[in-house]
Fold this sequence. Notes:
Blueprint: H1 2-5, H2 8-29, H3 36-50, H4 55-61, H5 63-74, H6 77-82, H7 84-89, H8 91-115, H9 120-126, H10 133-143, H11 147-171, H12 177-197, H13 201-233
Amino acid sequence: MNELINTPLFTITLTVVVYLLSDYLYIKTKCAFLNPVMTSIVILIIGLKFNDIDFKTYDEGTYIIKLLLNASVVALAYPLYLQWDLIKKNYKKIFLCMFLGSSIGIISVVLLAILFGASDQVILSLIPKSITTPIAVKVSESIGGIAPLSAAVVIMVGIFGSVVGVNFLKLMKINKPESVGLAMGTAAHGLGTATVAKLGNNYSAMAGLAIALNGLLTAILSPLFVEYILKYIH
């Protein structure tokens, strides 16, 4: 039995089944707190602990899922292609929005962290909170943050954004697909993009563009902000 549990077949099957059940539960209950990603993470952690499966074994076993995830990210280029004329027409506005979104995302989380008395390293770990996990980990490492903490925060931010983002934008009377897509991709990266992708290609195109630009801008701006942030703290 132990040999079966530690095989890629078991870990892949477990992951897929848990997610499908979590998604079914979310659809049936419509409860925001039962977001399928969050529910799946909790169930998988309990399952791995209960079956005494270490994370390295699980990570290696689910390699094919990560490979497909990379392919899905590349697939976002197709909606971008469909909306290319719109992007070219509004590229100045898009870049300005992305610059402001990236800067405000960094400054806001730093101010909140300082307000709650976080340590320097925790503050640095929170800076890349709104960019996709692989880039966030690299940015966190480069500025002196704690990479695992950054990864965990990125996931929580993505879940929160995917749950409340669209409804919040509606409350603020922001309904244009381009605006919604850019906002969700900037604030909630991949999970936010997955949420708005169901609404149409124009939403997913802008959200996918926002993921790429926000990741690039945050990687560039973070080291510049860090110098002034540390001076301000001390």
